[in-house]
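Hey team,

Filing this mostly as a record. A colleague (T.K.) asked me to run one chain through the structure pipeline before their review meeting, and I want the input and output archived in the tracker in case anyone asks later how it was produced. No errors, nothing strange. Just documentation.

Input sequence:
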Amino acid sequence: MKSMKNYDLTDDDGVLLVQTARRVVTEYITKHRRLELDEKLQERFSFDAGIFVTLNISSDLRGCVGFPMPIKLNTALVDAAIAAATEDPRFSPVTEDEIDKITFEVTILTPPVEIKMDDPSKLVSHIKVGRDGLIVRQGNYSGLLLPQVPVEYGWTEEEFLSHTCQKAGLPNNCWKDEKTKVSSFEGVIFKEEAAKGKIIRERL
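Output structure:
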């Protein structure tokens, strides 16, 4: 079985991932059925990886759902695309007349690794905006932000930690608490430059 090292996805893989996410959502919204990937795609994406599908209209988020832990990509791509369009609790389901206005983005994740520190205040020096995504966990609370988010908002590393805590529904300084677990991961990002437009690999 093929395995994903950090960045061995080709640009052609990225085009296929984003095109497939669009086809999956279009089929699901317009025909109410789940697209079955053809055998070639099933084989090409038969390895395990984390994945998130992000939908935007103009620069506004319209849905983002995924799987942070490695999972069979050919199934997860379909599940994440449908969920981003219909199950993100922050938004109503995507409607048929919105599909052609949406830009699709697919992020493939490396496995999260917990950052273990004796002194949590040193966490800031172990993460890097433009490289890392973050997961914050404490008890039953957890929050995840993809690597592109702090870049889009111009956050510092400390602000990135604080916003990930907020995403988890925790106080924004919870990362300083010894009970909080912080993990980082990297992402390979492919996106449409405009709705139904050219698909590029995004460099943060």
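Quick notes for T.K.: The longest helix spans residues 11-31. Residues 113-185 form a domain with the Dna Ligase; domain 1 fold (CATH 3.30.1490.150).
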